[in-house]
Amino acid sequence: MFSGIVEEYAEVVNVVKDRDNLHLTLKCSFANELKIDQSVSHNGVCLTVVSLGDGTYTVTAMKETIDRSNIGLLKVGDKVNVERSMLMNGRLDGHIVQGHVDQTAVCANVEDANGSWYYTFKYHWDAEMARKGYMAVDKGSVTVNGVSLTVCNPTEDSFQVAIIPYTYEHTNFHTIHEGTVVNIEFDIIGKYISRLLQLSKE
User: Fold this and answer.
1) How confident is the model at residue 89, as a pLDDT?
2) Partner of 121 for a Cys bridge, out of 4, 29, 105, 198, CB 3.0 to 4.6 A?
3) How far apart are CA 156 and CA 158, in angstroms?
């Protein structure tokens, strides 16, 4: 479980393809504090630490994760938003994030807002999935590359988020441009409400 408050961005230092699996080695400031089997969010994807090095750690992504997220697009030198699992005795500064990416979206536009930025993302919309809560709603929460954000100006297949300078500088949002593929996770609370409504009609 995560909060969507990214700690920093890690740098990919090695990528190894192993049949349908992908082993990613990354370096970040807290790498030496990690333990084997620990969960870390990578661009919003929960992955397990499988080995440790000197200032680096390795995680493994399987085919399901690669197909559903942008993990398979990563290459050496890329910046990845990372967050360790949430402490239950702390404040929930973002929102409840599972680390289970629902799908990818594509950056359609970046608009300068005189010091901040508006990013527009387009995603594949499916009516049946929308009925299950896989959609963006105005002023609702959404996770983009692991960052907890508030939705504005949603349409059937797109939404905007506002990015302040701190978020721009301390996450990989400063590397996102038109055409960049990002991971999105819709709000779990909306999914549960949608499911309850479906059950009430059966």
Assistant:
1) 78
2) 105
3) 6
DSSP, collapsed to helix, strand or coil, labels residue 7 as: coil
How does 73-99 read in b/e, with b if 16+ C-beta sit within 10 Å?
A: ebeeebbbbbbeebeeeeeeebbbbeb
Angstrom CA distances, 86 to 38, 93, 170, 181, stand at 12, 10, 19, 26
d(CA 113, CA 117) in angstroms, rounded, equals: 5
What are 103-160's pLDDT values in tens digits?
Answer: 999 999 999 999 999 999 999 999 888 888 889 999 999 999 999 999 999 999 999 9
- By three-state DSSP, how is residue 81 classified? strand
Backbone angles phi, psi at 176, to 5 degrees: -85, 130
Q: For residues 30 and 12, give the distance between their C-alpha atoms in angstroms, rounded to a whole number.
A: 14
- Written as one letter, the residue type at 139 is K
Residue 196, sorted as left (phi over 0), alpha (psi -120 to 50) or beta, turns out to be alpha
